[in-house]
Amino acid sequence: GLGLSILLAGQLAAPLLARITATDAAGRAAVLYFRIRILGAPLLLVVVALREARYGTGDSRSPMVATVTANLVNIMVAASLIHVKGLGVAGVAWATVVAHAVEAGFLVVSQQRIGWRLRGVRASHAWETCRLGFPTGIQFFLEIGSFGLLTAMLSSMGEKDAAAHQVALQVIHFSFLPSFAVGEAVSILSGQAVGAGRDRQVLRVARLGMWLVGAYTGACTIVLTLGAPWIVSGFTSDPGLSRIAVSLLYVAAVFQIFDGANIVARGALRGTGDVRFPALLGVLTAWCMTPPLTWLLGLKLHWGAVGGWLGLCAEIVIGALLLWWRLERRHWLGVAEKARARMAEGRIVSAEVTVG
Fold first, then answer.
1. How far is CA 85 from the centre of its chain?
2. CA separation (Å) from 189 to 136, 137, 179, 206?
């Protein structure tokens, strides 16, 4: 249902993209891409719902196979539509929509074999899902809004700043996504620990996740510091664009470990049911750091994209420190106890429904 709403809202909002690009050609391409890509919103949210449900039961294999399959389809369809049919950005967008459909279909079939287990589901269960998910959803929405504003501001500075921003983003996905995977695992294991009444395990799981992520992001820091020019050369040969992109990767090298720490701490707190504090903190740091510093450093002091990324760096570092402070101080214990009580009450009600 949310996906259909997003689809309709996206079609109405698409023309606005033309107003935040540096050139008319870029604006037309952005509008075309967005109008097509948003068609996959309902499919993508079906994927998210089923993927998270499988994670919660300990099944990470099915979502992995679905994602790998969808990416292979995406590559093949994109290559065909771009190079054979000559559809350009429209081909990229359609390929992604097709990939979403393949991934959603795979997970639906996988879930069908297991069963949907809808007997005994009550309105209170849906409300509990919304209660836990709403703060995180608002947080993601507003954080993405902040990041979207960053992108818009960089686009207004010039095509090279915008292009360098995209190059650097693609590169740091190699550090962000593995950290995100560990953060998901930490969230699930923390939730299982709280459900089992083993609250002490939460910090153990979080610290282990931090060691794993710290080792990986530390290696990424070294790679970015030493290899930034070589990495950027694989994306562009334009000297001006390369210079900006290399500078952004140097900034990224500074926040790599903090970014991993932020992801792990947020996952651990979310697993305990403590979603309001991370949500509020995420929104405050996103809007108090990134857009203002982008305006000050990027636009007023003419540092360009580097100024925007320094704002992003400040947001990540401050957020990581405050999240770990809350985690280590165990301020989440009260929330975990309440979540455990609600879960126990829900089991009693479900049992009564089944017996009845």
1. 32
2. 18, 21, 15, 9
